[in-house]
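Sample intake sheet
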Amino acid sequence: MRAGLVAVGLTAGLLLTGCAGGSGAPAATSTAPPDAAATLEPTDEPTLEETLPPITLPSKYVELSKRAWQKVVKSPDTYMGKGYKLWACIWQFDAATGADGFLGYASYRREDYWALDGENAAFAGDAAQLSDFVEGDIVAMSVVGLGSYSYDTQVGGNTTVPSFQVVKIKRQKGSCE
Protein backbone atom coordinates (compact mmCIF):
# COMPACT_ATOMS: atom_id res chain seq x y z
CA MET A 1 0.00 0.00 0.00
CA ARG A 2 2.83 2.41 0.79
CA ALA A 3 4.26 1.98 -2.69
CA GLY A 4 0.88 2.90 -4.15
CA LEU A 5 0.65 5.99 -1.99
CA VAL A 6 4.14 7.06 -2.98
CA ALA A 7 3.32 6.54 -6.64
CA VAL A 8 0.13 8.57 -6.28
CA GLY A 9 1.98 11.43 -4.58
CA LEU A 10 4.82 11.37 -7.06
CA THR A 11 2.48 11.20 -10.06
CA ALA A 12 0.44 14.07 -8.67
CA GLY A 13 3.65 16.07 -8.36
CA LEU A 14 4.52 15.31 -11.96
CA LEU A 15 1.04 16.28 -13.12
CA LEU A 16 1.20 19.57 -11.21
CA THR A 17 4.61 20.53 -12.49
CA GLY A 18 3.91 19.35 -16.01
CA CYS A 19 7.28 17.68 -16.30
CA ALA A 20 8.35 14.10 -16.08
CA GLY A 21 11.86 14.99 -14.99
CA GLY A 22 11.67 14.28 -11.29
CA SER A 23 9.55 13.83 -8.25
CA GLY A 24 11.27 16.24 -5.93
CA ALA A 25 11.94 13.33 -3.66
CA PRO A 26 15.16 11.57 -2.82
CA ALA A 27 16.42 9.95 -6.00
CA ALA A 28 16.61 6.20 -6.32
CA THR A 29 19.78 4.73 -7.72
CA SER A 30 20.21 1.60 -9.76
CA THR A 31 23.13 -0.78 -9.83
CA ALA A 32 21.84 -2.60 -12.92
CA PRO A 33 24.02 -2.50 -16.03
CA PRO A 34 22.96 0.06 -18.65
CA ASP A 35 21.63 -2.60 -21.03
CA ALA A 36 19.51 -4.29 -18.32
CA ALA A 37 16.44 -2.22 -19.24
CA ALA A 38 16.48 -3.75 -22.73
CA THR A 39 15.75 -7.17 -21.23
CA LEU A 40 12.55 -6.04 -19.51
CA GLU A 41 9.38 -7.21 -21.19
CA PRO A 42 6.81 -4.55 -22.15
CA THR A 43 3.53 -4.46 -20.28
CA ASP A 44 0.05 -3.50 -21.41
CA GLU A 45 -0.85 -2.14 -17.97
CA PRO A 46 -1.58 1.61 -17.94
CA THR A 47 0.82 3.84 -16.07
CA LEU A 48 -0.35 5.79 -13.05
CA GLU A 49 -0.21 9.00 -15.07
CA GLU A 50 -2.77 7.48 -17.45
CA THR A 51 -5.09 6.33 -14.65
CA LEU A 52 -5.08 9.38 -12.35
CA PRO A 53 -7.19 12.44 -13.06
CA PRO A 54 -5.16 15.63 -13.43
CA ILE A 55 -4.92 17.76 -10.30
CA THR A 56 -5.78 21.42 -10.69
CA LEU A 57 -4.16 24.12 -8.63
CA PRO A 58 -6.40 25.41 -5.86
CA SER A 59 -7.86 28.91 -6.07
CA LYS A 60 -6.62 29.79 -2.58
CA TYR A 61 -3.92 28.76 -0.13
CA VAL A 62 -5.15 28.78 3.46
CA GLU A 63 -3.28 29.39 6.69
CA LEU A 64 -3.79 26.46 9.03
CA SER A 65 -4.46 26.30 12.75
CA LYS A 66 -2.37 23.95 14.88
CA ARG A 67 -5.17 21.37 14.90
CA ALA A 68 -5.78 21.60 11.14
CA TRP A 69 -2.03 21.13 10.52
CA GLN A 70 -2.02 18.06 12.79
CA LYS A 71 -4.86 16.59 10.71
CA VAL A 72 -2.90 17.11 7.46
CA VAL A 73 0.18 15.44 8.97
CA LYS A 74 -1.88 12.57 10.37
CA SER A 75 -3.68 11.79 7.11
CA PRO A 76 -2.03 13.55 4.15
CA ASP A 77 -3.82 11.47 1.52
CA THR A 78 -7.14 12.94 2.68
CA TYR A 79 -5.89 16.44 1.81
CA MET A 80 -4.48 15.85 -1.68
CA GLY A 81 -5.03 18.83 -3.96
CA LYS A 82 -5.66 21.30 -1.12
CA GLY A 83 -3.67 24.54 -0.95
CA TYR A 84 -1.83 25.70 2.16
CA LYS A 85 0.60 28.34 3.35
CA LEU A 86 3.41 26.56 5.16
CA TRP A 87 6.80 27.29 6.67
CA ALA A 88 9.75 24.93 6.58
CA CYS A 89 13.36 24.55 7.58
CA ILE A 90 15.19 22.78 4.73
CA TRP A 91 17.21 19.94 6.26
CA GLN A 92 18.13 17.97 3.12
CA PHE A 93 18.61 19.42 -0.34
CA ASP A 94 21.38 17.58 -2.15
CA ALA A 95 22.16 15.03 -4.84
CA ALA A 96 19.94 12.48 -3.11
CA THR A 97 16.85 14.70 -3.28
CA GLY A 98 17.69 16.17 -6.67
CA ALA A 99 17.45 19.75 -7.86
CA ASP A 100 13.65 19.68 -7.85
CA GLY A 101 12.88 18.63 -4.29
CA PHE A 102 13.92 18.79 -0.66
CA LEU A 103 13.10 17.44 2.77
CA GLY A 104 12.21 19.88 5.50
CA TYR A 105 10.80 20.31 8.96
CA ALA A 106 7.43 21.85 8.13
CA SER A 107 4.90 23.75 10.18
CA TYR A 108 1.82 25.91 9.90
CA ARG A 109 3.91 28.75 11.40
CA ARG A 110 7.50 29.80 11.88
CA GLU A 111 9.06 27.73 14.66
CA ASP A 112 11.88 28.50 17.10
CA TYR A 113 13.07 24.87 17.32
CA TRP A 114 12.45 23.29 13.93
CA ALA A 115 13.82 19.82 14.68
CA LEU A 116 11.58 19.54 17.74
CA ASP A 117 8.47 21.40 16.62
CA GLY A 118 8.42 20.89 12.85
CA GLU A 119 7.10 17.83 11.04
CA ASN A 120 9.25 15.91 8.57
CA ALA A 121 7.86 16.53 5.06
CA ALA A 122 8.86 16.20 1.41
CA PHE A 123 8.57 19.09 -1.05
CA ALA A 124 8.68 18.98 -4.86
CA GLY A 125 9.02 21.94 -7.19
CA ASP A 126 10.53 23.26 -10.36
CA ALA A 127 14.34 23.00 -10.33
CA ALA A 128 14.73 26.57 -11.60
CA GLN A 129 12.34 27.85 -8.92
CA LEU A 130 14.28 26.03 -6.17
CA SER A 131 17.79 26.72 -7.48
CA ASP A 132 18.63 29.47 -4.96
CA PHE A 133 17.65 27.47 -1.85
CA VAL A 134 20.01 25.38 0.30
CA GLU A 135 20.02 23.28 3.47
CA GLY A 136 19.52 25.47 6.53
CA ASP A 137 17.20 27.97 4.81
CA ILE A 138 13.89 28.88 6.40
CA VAL A 139 11.18 29.28 3.77
CA ALA A 140 7.57 30.41 3.56
CA MET A 141 5.58 28.68 0.83
CA SER A 142 2.27 28.24 -0.90
CA VAL A 143 1.91 24.50 -1.48
CA VAL A 144 -0.51 21.85 -2.71
CA GLY A 145 -0.92 18.58 -0.80
CA LEU A 146 0.32 15.52 -2.72
CA GLY A 147 -0.50 12.88 -0.10
CA SER A 148 1.94 10.49 1.53
CA TYR A 149 5.51 9.88 0.46
CA SER A 150 7.70 7.01 1.69
CA TYR A 151 11.47 6.89 1.44
CA ASP A 152 14.39 4.85 2.75
CA THR A 153 16.45 6.50 5.45
CA GLN A 154 20.24 6.54 5.60
CA VAL A 155 20.21 4.26 8.65
CA GLY A 156 18.36 1.54 6.76
CA GLY A 157 14.80 2.27 7.84
CA ASN A 158 11.80 3.60 5.96
CA THR A 159 9.59 6.56 6.80
CA THR A 160 6.36 7.99 5.42
CA VAL A 161 5.80 11.74 5.45
CA PRO A 162 3.33 14.23 3.99
CA SER A 163 4.42 15.60 0.61
CA PHE A 164 3.68 18.91 -1.05
CA GLN A 165 4.08 20.59 -4.42
CA VAL A 166 5.73 24.01 -4.06
CA VAL A 167 3.81 26.67 -5.98
CA LYS A 168 5.44 29.75 -4.46
CA ILE A 169 8.49 29.95 -2.16
CA LYS A 170 10.37 32.74 -0.44
CA ARG A 171 13.45 32.57 1.80
CA GLN A 172 13.02 34.13 5.22
CA LYS A 173 15.59 35.80 7.47
CA GLY A 174 17.55 33.55 9.76
CA SER A 175 18.68 29.96 9.64
CA CYS A 176 17.38 26.79 11.16
CA GLU A 177 20.84 25.49 12.00
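Comment: The first helix runs from residue 2 to 17. The chain has one domain: 2-24+48-175.
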